[in-house]
Design a protein that fits this description.
Elements lengths: L2 H10 L56 H15 L17 H27 L11 H5 L37
Protein backbone atom coordinates (compact mmCIF):
# COMPACT_ATOMS: atom_id res chain seq x y z
CA UNK A 1 0.00 0.00 0.00
CA UNK A 2 1.16 3.53 0.72
CA UNK A 3 3.77 4.90 -1.67
CA UNK A 4 3.15 2.50 -4.52
CA UNK A 5 -0.53 3.37 -4.43
CA UNK A 6 0.35 7.06 -4.27
CA UNK A 7 2.40 6.64 -7.43
CA UNK A 8 -0.53 4.90 -9.08
CA UNK A 9 -2.88 7.66 -7.90
CA UNK A 10 -0.57 10.27 -9.41
CA UNK A 11 -0.26 8.29 -12.63
CA UNK A 12 -4.00 7.72 -12.93
CA UNK A 13 -4.75 11.43 -12.70
CA UNK A 14 -6.05 11.52 -9.14
CA UNK A 15 -3.27 13.88 -8.09
CA UNK A 16 -2.63 16.48 -10.78
CA UNK A 17 -0.30 19.21 -9.65
CA UNK A 18 0.94 20.19 -13.09
CA UNK A 19 2.08 16.72 -14.09
CA UNK A 20 -0.52 16.57 -16.83
CA UNK A 21 -3.27 18.74 -18.16
CA UNK A 22 -6.23 17.33 -16.22
CA UNK A 23 -8.78 19.22 -18.31
CA UNK A 24 -7.74 17.83 -21.67
CA UNK A 25 -6.47 14.45 -20.48
CA UNK A 26 -3.24 14.92 -22.42
CA UNK A 27 0.26 14.59 -21.09
CA UNK A 28 1.16 18.10 -22.25
CA UNK A 29 1.80 20.29 -19.26
CA UNK A 30 0.93 23.99 -19.01
CA UNK A 31 3.89 24.32 -16.61
CA UNK A 32 7.60 24.78 -17.25
CA UNK A 33 9.92 25.56 -18.70
CA UNK A 34 9.36 29.22 -17.98
CA UNK A 35 9.39 31.56 -20.98
CA UNK A 36 12.45 33.67 -20.17
CA UNK A 37 11.45 36.29 -22.76
CA UNK A 38 7.98 36.93 -21.35
CA UNK A 39 7.54 40.33 -19.73
CA UNK A 40 7.32 40.31 -15.94
CA UNK A 41 3.93 41.55 -14.73
CA UNK A 42 4.47 42.68 -11.14
CA UNK A 43 0.79 43.54 -10.69
CA UNK A 44 0.11 39.80 -10.31
CA UNK A 45 2.89 39.23 -7.77
CA UNK A 46 2.91 39.26 -3.97
CA UNK A 47 4.54 42.27 -2.30
CA UNK A 48 7.51 40.05 -1.32
CA UNK A 49 8.65 39.93 -4.98
CA UNK A 50 11.06 42.83 -5.57
CA UNK A 51 11.15 44.68 -8.86
CA UNK A 52 14.88 45.21 -8.36
CA UNK A 53 15.99 41.64 -7.69
CA UNK A 54 19.42 41.28 -6.08
CA UNK A 55 21.08 37.85 -6.45
CA UNK A 56 22.33 36.28 -3.24
CA UNK A 57 19.33 37.35 -1.15
CA UNK A 58 16.16 35.48 -0.26
CA UNK A 59 12.83 36.90 -1.37
CA UNK A 60 9.32 35.48 -1.54
CA UNK A 61 10.11 32.32 0.45
CA UNK A 62 6.91 30.46 1.32
CA UNK A 63 7.69 26.76 1.74
CA UNK A 64 11.37 26.83 2.72
CA UNK A 65 10.93 29.43 5.47
CA UNK A 66 13.76 29.54 7.97
CA UNK A 67 16.32 28.15 5.52
CA UNK A 68 19.55 30.04 4.98
CA UNK A 69 20.54 31.13 1.48
CA UNK A 70 23.08 28.27 1.14
CA UNK A 71 20.48 25.75 2.36
CA UNK A 72 17.91 27.01 -0.19
CA UNK A 73 20.53 26.58 -2.92
CA UNK A 74 21.16 23.00 -1.74
CA UNK A 75 17.42 22.25 -1.89
CA UNK A 76 17.15 23.79 -5.36
CA UNK A 77 20.08 21.66 -6.55
CA UNK A 78 18.32 18.55 -5.24
CA UNK A 79 15.16 19.52 -7.13
CA UNK A 80 17.05 20.03 -10.39
CA UNK A 81 18.59 16.56 -10.07
CA UNK A 82 15.30 14.90 -9.07
CA UNK A 83 13.47 16.43 -12.06
CA UNK A 84 16.33 16.53 -14.54
CA UNK A 85 15.84 20.24 -15.23
CA UNK A 86 17.69 23.51 -14.73
CA UNK A 87 16.72 26.52 -12.66
CA UNK A 88 14.97 28.14 -15.65
CA UNK A 89 12.36 25.37 -15.67
CA UNK A 90 10.64 26.93 -12.62
CA UNK A 91 12.27 30.35 -12.28
CA UNK A 92 12.48 33.44 -14.41
CA UNK A 93 16.23 34.06 -14.41
CA UNK A 94 15.75 37.85 -14.50
CA UNK A 95 14.06 37.64 -11.09
CA UNK A 96 14.24 34.32 -9.22
CA UNK A 97 11.71 35.62 -6.68
CA UNK A 98 9.05 36.11 -9.37
CA UNK A 99 6.18 33.61 -9.03
CA UNK A 100 5.64 31.53 -12.15
CA UNK A 101 2.95 28.86 -12.61
CA UNK A 102 5.62 26.17 -12.36
CA UNK A 103 7.05 27.63 -9.16
CA UNK A 104 3.60 27.75 -7.55
CA UNK A 105 2.94 24.10 -8.49
CA UNK A 106 6.39 23.17 -7.19
CA UNK A 107 5.57 24.70 -3.81
CA UNK A 108 2.42 22.57 -3.62
CA UNK A 109 4.39 19.45 -4.46
CA UNK A 110 7.10 20.26 -1.88
CA UNK A 111 4.34 20.63 0.73
CA UNK A 112 2.77 17.35 -0.44
CA UNK A 113 6.09 15.50 -0.04
CA UNK A 114 6.62 16.94 3.45
CA UNK A 115 3.09 15.90 4.40
CA UNK A 116 3.66 12.36 3.09
CA UNK A 117 6.86 12.06 5.08
CA UNK A 118 5.30 13.29 8.31
CA UNK A 119 1.92 11.55 7.92
CA UNK A 120 2.96 8.22 6.39
CA UNK A 121 6.68 7.49 6.45
CA UNK A 122 7.55 8.65 9.97
CA UNK A 123 4.69 6.68 11.59
CA UNK A 124 5.75 3.54 9.68
CA UNK A 125 9.32 3.99 10.90
CA UNK A 126 8.03 4.23 14.48
CA UNK A 127 5.52 1.38 14.25
CA UNK A 128 7.78 -1.13 12.50
CA UNK A 129 11.11 -0.58 14.24
CA UNK A 130 12.33 -4.13 13.53
CA UNK A 131 11.43 -3.93 9.85
CA UNK A 132 13.90 -2.53 7.38
CA UNK A 133 11.80 0.56 6.60
CA UNK A 134 14.18 3.35 5.69
CA UNK A 135 14.28 6.51 3.64
CA UNK A 136 11.91 9.28 2.83
CA UNK A 137 9.64 10.40 0.03
CA UNK A 138 11.20 12.99 -2.24
CA UNK A 139 10.66 14.47 -5.67
CA UNK A 140 12.76 11.70 -7.21
CA UNK A 141 10.44 9.05 -5.72
CA UNK A 142 7.95 9.70 -8.51
CA UNK A 143 9.77 11.96 -10.98
CA UNK A 144 12.85 9.76 -11.43
CA UNK A 145 14.85 12.52 -13.09
CA UNK A 146 12.01 13.63 -15.39
CA UNK A 147 10.01 16.89 -15.23
CA UNK A 148 6.72 14.98 -15.63
CA UNK A 149 5.78 11.80 -13.84
CA UNK A 150 5.70 8.87 -16.29
CA UNK A 151 2.14 7.76 -16.99
CA UNK A 152 3.11 4.17 -17.77
CA UNK A 153 2.58 3.04 -14.19
CA UNK A 154 6.19 1.94 -13.89
CA UNK A 155 7.49 4.71 -11.65
CA UNK A 156 7.29 2.39 -8.65
CA UNK A 157 10.54 0.62 -7.78
CA UNK A 158 8.43 -2.43 -6.92
CA UNK A 159 6.95 -2.64 -10.43
CA UNK A 160 8.12 -4.69 -13.35
CA UNK A 161 8.36 -3.24 -16.82
CA UNK A 162 4.74 -4.27 -17.43
CA UNK A 163 3.53 -2.25 -14.45
CA UNK A 164 2.74 -5.31 -12.30
CA UNK A 165 4.00 -5.37 -8.74
CA UNK A 166 6.76 -7.72 -7.74
CA UNK A 167 6.46 -9.57 -4.47
CA UNK A 168 8.85 -8.51 -1.75
CA UNK A 169 10.05 -11.05 0.73
CA UNK A 170 10.07 -10.34 4.42
CA UNK A 171 13.52 -9.77 5.93
CA UNK A 172 14.62 -12.94 7.74
CA UNK A 173 15.38 -11.03 10.95
CA UNK A 174 11.95 -9.44 11.17
CA UNK A 175 9.05 -10.79 13.16
CA UNK A 176 6.63 -8.22 11.74
CA UNK A 177 4.65 -8.92 8.56
CA UNK A 178 5.64 -7.32 5.27
CA UNK A 179 4.05 -4.00 4.47
CA UNK A 180 2.37 -4.25 1.09
Amino acid sequence: MGLWLLGQAVNSGVVHLGVANADSGTSASPYGPVDQNAPLDYSTQPASVPKNYQPGQLYNIEVLKGYTYPRVLQEMEAYTVALGVGCEYCHNEKNFAYDTKTKIVSRKMISMVANLDSSWITPVHKQFTNYAVTGQVGCVTCHRGQPSIPSSGTSSPSSTSTGRRRRRSRPASSSTPCIR
